[in-house]
Write a structure and sequence with these properties.
single chain, alpha/beta, 60s Ribosomal Protein L30, Chain: A, Alpha/beta knot, rRNA methyltransferase 1, mitochondrial, MRM1, transit peptide
Length: 256
């Protein structure tokens, strides 16, 4: 490969690292896959061996390299002995959203300008655990679907539908016409989140780490609720708040 062609390849690709993100990328094929790099003696690790077998099955080129090379490729990252050169992870579009995956009372999580990729990844991991149907993010002022976010999500980002919208207020209004009820989680809201019930399709809105839910988005919420706790603590981190809220929703019986 000549130098110019190699440079263009790197412009179109990124380095995904960590066992769960790489395994998820190989299993779900939402990315273009270019080259897998494994630490030498990867066969000694059961999880790395699983990745190697899967890569060979799909005929993905594999290079066994020293751990030091992986560290140079992904500095300041916990690569766990595996790095994947791959295409960028695409967003899911609404027409591509698998309606078969939507239950009788579907649950969407909307993130209003979540900018920290660690928060995005942690929220998506929680959404995967509690069987959220899809996550919706804003096109602007939001973290991208980066390797950092994928690692923080423990690979859930590689398979959970994530939809990007240009106008969040318009999106919420459209979903309300389809029967969704919109609840916004806000620290200062007077109503308690534990009064919630699952009796209709639901959208849970979480706001920016510092600014919370924007005014126009808040206007499209049918109900603003807060998580009860110690008033001497201003609020929970947004990813922790998502975990508490989704656990509560997950335990509620769904009524037709």
């Amino acid at each position: 490969m000549n130098r110019k062609k190699g440079a263009k390849l790197k412009e179109r690709t990124e380095l995904l690292y960590g066992i769960q993100p790489v395994l998820g990328a190989l299993q779900h094929s939402k990315r273009l896959l270019n080259q897998l790099y494994l630490k030498k003696d990867a066969d000694s690790s059961e999880r790395l061996r699983e990745i190697l077998i899967l890569a060979e099955k799909i005929k993905l080129p594999v290079s066994e390299v020293p751990v030091s090379q992986l560290t140079v490729m992904c500095p300041d990252a916990v690569h766990q002995g595996v790095v994947l050169r791959c295409g960028f992870l695409p967003f899911t579009s609404m027409p591509d959203f698998p309606q078969s995956a939507v239950g009788t009372q579907p649950l969407l999580v909307v993130l209003d300008q979540i900018e920290d990729p660690h928060n995005l990844g942690a929220i998506i991991r929680t959404c995967g655990f509690f069987e959220v149907n899809a996550v919706v993010v804003t096109q602007d002022h939001s973290s991208g679907l980066t390797p950092v976010a994928s690692k923080a999500s423990a690979g859930v980002l590689e398979w959970l539908p994530v939809i990007s919208v240009t106008n969040l207020a318009r999106f919420l209004n459209e979903q309300k016409t389809k029967g969704f009820w919109v609840a916004g989680l806000e620290g200062e809201a007077p109503d308690c989140f534990t009064d919630f019930s699952r009796d209709r399709p639901l959208i849970l809105v979480l706001g920016n780490e510092g600014r919370g839910i924007r005014r126009l988005v808040r206007k499209h919420c049918d109900w603003l609720v807060s998580i009860p706790g110690n008033h001497e603590v201003s609020s929970l981190n947004v990813s922790n708040a998502a975990a508490v809220a989704l656990y509560h929703l997950h335990t509620l019986p769904q009524t037709p």
